[in-house]
């Protein structure tokens, strides 16, 4: 307490105060003037809400929405339900929850999850938790928040767990899934076909139609005139040294003949690939057979004979 001054009033920090006056000193001290004496004690801050915001700079007490609305002249349309929109001091309102400042009207979830939703209203935190039914969960979303288990599916005399996928008996084209006690089935998707519908074919054990395989080729077409060679046919396309064969898949395979036999005077027989060394001799462009005699072109007095060796 400060020393008494003459008269019923008080002086504090250079300012006069009347008897019975109350004021706040720096350091959050609540002071009063009692018959010339200044009596001070730590300021008591009653809290009217569950999660007040910390005191602002140079302030002493945490703030609640109700306290602020009583401290400031209210707007003609301002009420506790309307102040987040119409009151000029709405930006100062909020809540402090687990060390995090929440704005007035902010909706948030608790860090530990469990699907609990909280809202900040007038400095108070209100939380709502989902009602978890005992036993199986009525929905998948409820299973994410509660410890209940999604309902099983009883289908065609069998029990399936939630999320299980299965096929119908004898029908591999239909896929089913168990969702919270309900069975949903769908047909297997089929690709689009690029063949006419009369060529569609459904094979044994298949779920989707497929295009029929084209019939195997009966031969080979080798020119634009429509000439067809049967499978296995061998022919020469015009070159006696080249032979072709018609394959089973309708393709043509050709191969050239390599002539290995050589002699000094071979005979080239028309229509034959390799020269013939056993039929005779070639002399000055003429063909003479074995043991055949003929005059020499260089000396008419000389006779020549073709001898095949």
TrEMBL record:
One GO BP annotation is: cellular response to virus
Tell where it localizes: Secreted
Decide whether keyword Glycoprotein is in the record: yes
GO CC entries: cytoplasm; extracellular region
Q: What keywords were assigned to this record? A: Glycoprotein, Secreted, Signal
On whether Glycoprotein is a keyword of this UniProt record, the answer is yes
Top-rank taxon of the source lineage equals Eukaryota
Ranges of residues in domain VWFC:
8-65, 151-212, 218-278
Q: Under what name is this protein listed?
A: VWCE protein
Task: Supply the gene name.
Answer: Vwce_0
């Amino acid at each position: 307490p400060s020393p008494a001054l003459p008269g019923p009033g008080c002086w504090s920090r250079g300012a006069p105060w009347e008897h019975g006056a109350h004021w706040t000193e720096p350091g959050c001290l609540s002071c009063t003037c009692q018959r010339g004496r200044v009596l001070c004690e730590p300021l008591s801050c009653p809290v009217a809400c569950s999660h007040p915001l910390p005191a602002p700079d140079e302030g002493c007490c945490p703030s609640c929405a109700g306290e602020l609305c009583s401290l400031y002249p209210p707007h003609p349309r301002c009420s506790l339900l309307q102040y987040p929109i119409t009151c000029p001091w709405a930006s100062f309102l909020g809540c402090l929850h687990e060390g995090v400042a929440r704005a007035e009207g902010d909706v948030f979830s608790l860090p530990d999850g469990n699907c609990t939703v909280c809202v900040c209203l007038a400095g108070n935190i209100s939380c709502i938790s989902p009602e978890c039914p005992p036993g199986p969960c009525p929905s998948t979303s409820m299973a994410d928040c509660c410890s209940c288990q999604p309902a099983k599916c009883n289908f065609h005399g069998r029990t399936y767990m939630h999320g299980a996928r299965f096929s119908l008996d004898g029908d591999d084209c239909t896929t089913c899934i168990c969702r919270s006690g309900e069975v949903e089935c769908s047909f297997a998707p089929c690709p689009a076909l690029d063949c006419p519908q009369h060529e569609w074919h459904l094979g044994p054990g298949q779920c989707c139609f497929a295009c029929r395989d084209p019939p195997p080729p009966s031969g080979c077409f080798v020119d634009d005139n429509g000439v067809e060679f049967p499978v296995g046919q061998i022919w020469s396309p015009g070159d006696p040294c080249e032979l072709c064969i018609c394959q089973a898949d309708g393709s043509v395979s050709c191969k050239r003949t390599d002539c290995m036999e050589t002699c000094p005077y071979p005979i080239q027989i028309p229509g034959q690939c390799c020269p013939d060394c056993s039929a005779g001799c070639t002399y000055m462009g003429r063909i003479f057979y074995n043991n055949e005699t003929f005059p020499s072109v260089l000396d008419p007095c000389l006779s020549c004979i073709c001898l095949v060796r």
